[in-house]
């Protein structure tokens, strides 16, 4: 039995605090502190900087810091819930809230590396990532398109699927989707012009396999129902508005059905997201980022979770970005509900994995 799961102990989850000039450090501290009695959220970031923010949020918040080398030497010590554990990964440059600095890009990346190392070493049962600024990592000289792709690459090139899940609320709460709207993406962070060429029968098939397997194994859905969007307007209008549906998406769905997967479509994306379709679905597979996520975020923003399916480890994240406009430390301008949900979802997935 690993140290992260031994009897009587809170599970330990790595929380990478994200872009230091954004809201990541603040929402990480707030969420970890709020959940400290049920989970040991080990914050990965600059200990001195996090201590300063914690003090600004609430002087009662205590941190217990250790170095990555100490973790490597002795494993994760048993700190109780009176303080938040921090693995110190120092920043290179002083941080000004809301102001990006490429000097700190590699330190942000180092928190992701430490989290992955920590799961592989058995220190952590899962990883929760606060938002980082993708451009800053690139400005620091490292080609980077997102956590999803980075985790896939660092986990041996695993094929992965980005899925966001949220609880409809407000004006969209009438969507009859208990408990959640889930939207997975066939492609992730790439220019729109590159999307068609990134779609293939084999790739879509593998994506459907991952969604089906992870919804069963990690979410306990016995026979996941997946609705697949078309790529083109009106799902191609019988080939008059594009042939990807006929040449790629339909054959991928047919092959998945032959493997026993309940996948249906392709549906025109503009009318797919309506109650009569969604009540028959556990997940919608959209062809690209801005086909699926604006709908999901309209319905659930701030109450959603981003989950990477297909990884050999559990990784969840928030449904929003770095919100530099709200990064005035300690003032509580940022909503940390999505961060708390990301932690809760990771915990549920840890429990489901046994
Ligand atoms: N998981 C991650 O690391 C993610 C990182 N990003 C990165 O974030 C950066 C900024 O992205 P944007 O498109 O500007 O989106 P954003 O989500 O940072 O901000 C969009 C709007 O939502 C508001 N908002 C965001 N989070 C909020 C919160 N917790 N509470 C209250 N209001 C909130 C912001 O104030 C802003 O008005 C980009 O570099 C992007 O790559 C974006 C999404 C996910
Ligand atoms: N819009 C979702 C998003 O950008 C999340 O990306 P990732 O960093 O979690 O891969």
Overview of the molecule:
- InterPro entries: PdxA (IPR037510), PdxA_fam (IPR005255).
- The chain is an alpha/beta fold and about 350 residues long.
- It folds into two domains: about 10-160 and about 310-354, Isopropylmalate Dehydrogenase, CATH 3.40.718.10; about 160-300, Isopropylmalate Dehydrogenase (3-Layer(aba) Sandwich).
- The chain is built from 13 helices and twelve strands.
- The longest helix has 17 residues, at about 105-120.
- It is globular and about 60 Å long.
- The termini are close together.
- The model is unreliable at about 1-5 and about 170-180 (pLDDT under 50).
- It binds 1,4-dihydronicotinamide adenine dinucleotide and the ligand NCC(=O)COP(=O)(O)O.
Q: Give the end-to-end Cα distance, rounded to a whole number of Å.
A: 11 Å
Average of the residue pLDDT scores = 93
List the strand order in the largest sheet: 3-4-2-1-5-12-11-6-7-10-8-9
Q: Which percent range describes the beta-strand content?
A: 15-25%
Q: In percent, how helical is the residue content?
A: 25-40%
Using only C-alpha atoms, the radius of gyration works out to 21 Å
Low-pLDDT segments:
1-5, 171-178
Number of strands: 12
Output the CATH topology of the largest domain: Isopropylmalate Dehydrogenase
Cofactor: Zn(2+); Mg(2+); Co(2+)
Family: Belongs to the PdxA family.
EC number: 1.1.1.262
Protein name: 4-hydroxythreonine-4-phosphate dehydrogenase
């Amino acid at each position: 039995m690993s140290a992260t799961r031994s009897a009587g102990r809170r599970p330990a989850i790595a929380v990478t605090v994200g872009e230091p000039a954004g809201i990541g450090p603040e929402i990480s501290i707030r969420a970890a502190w709020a959940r400290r009695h049920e989970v040991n959220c080990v914050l990965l970031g600059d200990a001195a900087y996090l201590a300063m923010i914690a003090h600004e949020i609430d002087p009662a918040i205590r941190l217990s810091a250790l170095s990555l080398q100490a973790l490597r030497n002795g494993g994760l010590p048993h700190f109780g819930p009176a303080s938040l554990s921090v693995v110190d990964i120092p920043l290179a440059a002083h941080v000004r809230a809301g102001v990006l600095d490429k000097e700190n890009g590699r330190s942000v990346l180092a928190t992701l590396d430490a989290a992955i190392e920590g799961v592989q070493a058995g220190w952590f049962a899962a990883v929760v990532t606060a938002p980082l600024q993708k451009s800053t990592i690139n400005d620091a000289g490292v080609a980077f398109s997102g956590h999803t792709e980075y985790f896939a690459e660092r986990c041996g090139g695993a094929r992965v699927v980005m899925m966001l899940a949220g609880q409809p609320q407000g004006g969209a709460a009438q969507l009859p989707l208990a408990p959640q709207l889930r939207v997975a993406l066939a492609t992730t962070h790439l220019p729109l012009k590159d999307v068609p060429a990134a779609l293939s029968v084999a790739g879509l098939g593998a994506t459907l396999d991952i969604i089906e397997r992870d919804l069963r194994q990690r979410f306990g859905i016995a026979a996941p129902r997946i609705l697949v969007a078309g790529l083109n307007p009106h799902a191609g209008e019988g080939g008059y508005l594009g042939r990807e549906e006929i040449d790629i998406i339909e054959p991928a769905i047919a092959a998945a059905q032959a493997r026993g997967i309940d996948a249906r479509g392709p549906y025109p994306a503009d009318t797919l997201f309506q109650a009569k379709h969604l009540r028959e679905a556990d997940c919608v597979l959209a062809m690209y980022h801005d086909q699926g996520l604006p709908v999901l975020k309209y319905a659930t923003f701030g109450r959603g979770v981003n989950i990477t399916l297909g990884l050999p480890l559990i990784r969840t994240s928030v449904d929003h970005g770095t919100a530099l406009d709200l990064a005035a430390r300690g003032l509580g301008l940022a909503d940390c509900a999505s961060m708390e949900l990301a932690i809760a979802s990771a915990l549920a997935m840890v429990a489901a994995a046994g």
